[in-house]
Amino acid sequence: MSFDPALRAAADTASAWPFEEARKLVERVKKTGQKEVLFETGYGPSGLPHIGTFGEVARTTMVRKAFELLTDGKIKTRLIAFSDDMDGLRKVPDNVPNKEMLTANLGKPLTEIPDPFGTHASFGAHNNARLRAFLDTFGFEYEFKSSTECYKSGMFDETLLLFLRRLDDVQKIMLPSLREERASTYSPFLPIHPETRVVMQVPTEARPEAGTVVWTDPDTGKSYETPVTGGHCKLQWKPDWAMRWIALGVDYEMAGKDLIDSVKLSSAIVRRLGHTPPEGFNYELFLDENGQKISKSKGNGLTIDEWLTYASPESLALFMYSKPREAKRLHFDVIPRAVDEYLTFLDGFGRQDEKNRLGNPVFHIHGGKPPLPEKLSEGEGRGQGVTFGLLLNLVAVANAESKDVLWGFLQRYAPGLSPQTHPRLDALVGYAIRYFADFVKPKKTYRTPDAVEAEALTALSEALGKLPPAAAPDEVQAAVYDVARAIPRYQDMKAKGATPERPGVSNLWFNTLYQLLLGEEKGPRFGSFAAIYGLDNTRRLIADALSGELVRRHAAFLAARGKA
Hints:
Blueprint: H1 5-11, H2 17-32, E1 36-43, H3 51-70, E2 76-83, H4 99-103, H5 123-137, E3 143-146, H6 147-153, H7 157-165, H8 167-174, H9 180-183, E4 189-191, E5 205-207, E6 212-216, E7 223-227, E8 233-235, H10 237-248, E9 255-256, H11 260-272, E10 282-283, E11 286-287, H12 304-310, H13 313-321, E12 328-329, H14 335-349, H15 354-358, H16 361-365, H17 388-398, H18 403-413, H19 423-440, H20 451-465, H21 473-485, E13 491-492, E14 504-505, H22 507-518, H23 526-533, H24 535-547, H25 549-563
Parallel strand pairs: 1-2, 2-3, 9-10, 11-12
Antiparallel strand pairs: 4-8, 5-6, 6-7, 13-14
Helix pairs in contact: 2-3, 7-10, 8-11, 10-11, 13-14, 17-19, 17-23, 20-21, 20-24, 21-23, 23-24
């Protein structure tokens, strides 16, 4: 694998965070001389994959691709998606069937509990399959590893015996982090009960020479001697994390900010045992619409299926890329902005030099090979593409409930356009229809114009009537500006280049248009909107605003919705 020399040279000074992270690994490789770098992400399969799972794999993949560019593909990389499926089930999830069956198997390893869905050999196997299908849907390159398989195959045996021999060192790190009551009985080793198959959290006596731990069942008083190898025993999760880093040779793993202390403890164990912990960073957690941290148990925030109902995977990847160390609201209202920012970045990529391309999020979202943007026509100017925001407003004024209606407007504006030639635009049309119906329409607020506004709308309608039906967006936008310049309320003498003969135009003019015609505080570039919607249709929309029809129509919608 090799890269364009100019792109490769620009990578050395690229400031995007995946490159900053990748440089840690470049320095690591210089010290160790290793020929392979291993990335890891972890997954707890007591529940289904969620949006945080996507975020961690997507971000890790971005660092991986940045590292490959920095090293010109000369260092092999691998990404392991690790499933902690040997953990004991602590509580029954809310979103599964046959809860009674799971309740009867609490405490057992996830891979030894029957599948409540009835499709796989175990609950762990079911969720692992869901994880792999989930990751495959997004095209991630990864190797899947199961904790159960790693323990039972002997892959971890050597490191487990090391932990047993150095148990005192492990305990010196772990015990100070625990409450006194728990510290008095804490053992890093969790033997699997040979009869009940429950993962036991009990005091143990280490026997390094035999490779076993001795423990007593608190319910029966019976004592057992259990090998720490071969899958008969697992580790508490913080020592387990450290053990896995050593056994697999993990070089990079990121984690949520809530795991900072855990990363420190696991890293300390790795160092105490003579190894080097992986590089990585702690990303911030997501917040819901009220600024509260998202919790799976609370069910606040967005699921990945909900995001993908209203927007593309690429827009979600952009959300994950942007400012990973800052807390961000993960709610429905962030979707339109993420979609349009993605389209803007994609549109600009082809005009950028190598340095700026490496700072463009689409470079990282698409592994260095973003697709070409879909243009409405040859030579289309910047800012004239179809945005998600524009489509939402087009749905509103057209009362569109199907793609065919919107495509009618788009094809009239740009003949030759079709869902076949512009599949991403076709998907965007579908997203806009669904998003508008569920989130935008109920929140719209129309009002009737005052005397100045009515006069301005009338003048705008007349100006649009003088334009050719196929006027370009820039031509329409110029007419919109000219109307406002003649009205004192909308003049802005502080605008750059404003003169008494040619005043600037204040944002108040466009806010007024959005409020009166679209029921919104903000809106799309008005020239683009009117050109696509059609000038005659835009004039009819103005007439409906002047007559109060838009206000009456929306009031009727809200009344009907309230009765439903």
